[in-house]
Amino acid sequence: MFLAIKEIKHAKVHYGLIIAMVTLIGYLIFMLLGLMLGLANENTAAIDAWSTKTVILSKGANVNLNQSLIKTADLPPLKAGDSLVGQSPVVISRQTGATHKQSAQLIGLRADQPIYQHLELVSGHRPQKPRQVVLAANLRTKGYRLGDRIKLAGQKQSLTVVGFAKDGMLNMTPIVYGNLQLWQAVKGGPQFAASAIFSQRTFQLDTTALKAYPRATYVNKLPGYTAQNKTFAAMIGFLMIISMIIIGVFLYILTMQKLPNYAVLRAQGIPGRTLTVATVSQAAVLMVSGGLLSLLLTRLTMLGLPASMPFQLSWPLAAGLTGALVLLGTVGALIPVKLIQRVQPLDALR
Amino acid sequence: MNLIELKQVSKVYGHGVSQVQALKEVNFAAAPGELNLVIGPSGSGKSTFLTIAGGLQTPTSGQVLINGQDPAQLTAQQRDHLRLTRLGFILQAYNLLPYLTVHQQFELVDRVKKDHLTPAALQTLLTELGIDQLQAKYPDQLSGGQNQRVAIARALYANPAIVLADEPTAALDSQRVQGVGQLFKTLAVKHHKAVVLVTHDQRLLAFADHCYQIEDGQMTQLS
């Protein structure tokens, strides 16, 4: 560590540039992680808020809530923790103030079931009448306010906004919470009980018309969700491998310049292990410095990001990735270590 | 007791038509308290002699004993330890790490070797070499002569029983040559070290107890 620190302090520009590069790679990794988690959250925020363990859909829906309809006749007996959810894609248009149209998902709930009862609001109250709705809180950034009147496309009667819900995003789309009768009106009648049952328990079905899916299976089948996460994860993985190679190559070049000195040190009896430890610990110092700086840069960037941007950083995960970055960078240092191991004391006199 | 002994040592490089005999049946001994000078032109085998005498490589034939041990019988790790504890090398170039100050060059020795000079003895040594004011400087802030004197001090700081130097006065002016010659002589006599200087600097002859000429791999003892 003595040699590593002294060299970094002496060649500030050399090592400053390497740290800057690691910082930029780390920054890119954390920004991608933030976007990945932010987008994932916009897919699943509501499902998480509903404490979902099992999702029951109609058998032919292919794990797609949009395609699922449960007939009243097929409805299984419900227990505590089960909620009927009517879902339909809608377009809302604001009737008060400036006109605005917004694609959304209508979620119809029953007032005596857990999702309705535990709906967390940031303002207002839950829908208590058939023509009242609660909007996803992020729609406030688009100018929606309590008391606004909105219409659903194809519906004549207007609805009153009585609240804003926290975590009101499902599959990247803001939710309009209403009651189940409102959803049935949109869907065309009471022959359908709901689109799905979201349950907080493991659900056993004795009907063949429906199928129960664990939360993970349902979430992974959300349109675009898995592909999006895999794309981000692959980008992060590649960046980490690239950072490992970059640190290895830089240290290799710097080590090559130091070989004559190392040969003299070996001739003087300095063990090869001392030089190896110096190189590996130097890589660790560079990676830790770059990792911490990139975390700081990410934090500063987050202060300036617009609220509408889907960005969410998990600090434990970011710390874990920093650890992985340090580990991979240190592994990268094994490239120049092979060079050091080949230095012979005799090279000092050649 | 001799600290270095070479008995009938020969060294051959290469095979067939490209074969070169760098050393031919060399006999050499260096005892504590003596300054030995090995003089010869370029390509005479001086460097090969130094590497074999310092345990950096083994001879093709003959026997080498350093501090009573044959390096050929030791593991690489044991040879490292032998060089670290018993030998002090002073080479022509790359002796100093460019990113350590003069003071830190000695600190590096502290970290790998327990037996070294006391701070007071180091201060005396630096004063004798005229580099006591340069401790905060980096090698690239020193002249060639100053660098060489720091390298000498660094090797001696490790308090070796044997000092091997390759052209130790190459970058020094006449006045400094006298000083360094006297320093090596003092080291041999006062500190009871076996000193071997490989050089073609005739100005050091005056300080030598034994002088050897090496030419075409053959060593002969001068007066």
From TrEMBL, chain A:
Question: Which keywords label this protein?
Answer: Membrane, Transmembrane, Transmembrane helix, Transport
- Where are the membrane-spanning stretches? 15-39, 232-254, 275-297, 317-340
In this chain the MacB-like periplasmic core domain maps to 29-186
Question: Is Acyltransferase given among the entry's keywords?
Answer: no
**Record-linked InterPro entries:** ABC-4/HrtB_transporter, MacB_PCD
PANTHER family referenced in this protein's UniProt entry, alphabetically: ABC TRANSPORTER, MEMBRANE PROTEIN (PTHR43738), HEMIN TRANSPORT SYSTEM PERMEASE PROTEIN HRTB-RELATED (PTHR43738:SF1)
Please state what the protein is called.
ABC superfamily ATP binding cassette transporter, membrane protein
TrEMBL record, chain B:
The yes or no answer to whether the keyword Ligase is present is no
- Identify the Gene3D superfamilies for this entry: P-loop containing nucleotide triphosphate hydrolases
What the entry lists under PROSITE patterns is as follows: ABC_TRANSPORTER_2 (PS50893)
Q: Where is the ABC transporter domain?
A: 4-222
Kindly give the membrane topology term recorded for this protein.
Answer: Peripheral membrane protein
In terms of superkingdom, the source organism counts as Bacteria
Q: Which CDD domains match?
A: ABC_MJ0796_LolCDE_FtsE (cd03255)
Compartments where found:
Cell membrane
Q: Name one GO molecular function term.
A: ATP binding
Gene Ontology CC entries for this record: plasma membrane
Q: What SMART domains does this protein's entry cite?
A: AAA
- TM spans, by residue? none
Q: Give the record's keywords alphabetically.
A: ATP-binding, Cell membrane, Membrane, Nucleotide-binding, Transport
| Function noted in UniProt | Part of the ABC transporter complex hrt involved in hemin import. Responsible for energy coupling to the transport system.
User: How is this protein organized at the quaternary level?
Assistant: The complex is composed of two ATP-binding proteins (HrtA), two transmembrane proteins (HrtB) and a solute-binding protein.
Family, as annotated: Belongs to the ABC transporter superfamily. HrtA family.
The molecule here is called Putative hemin import ATP-binding protein HrtA
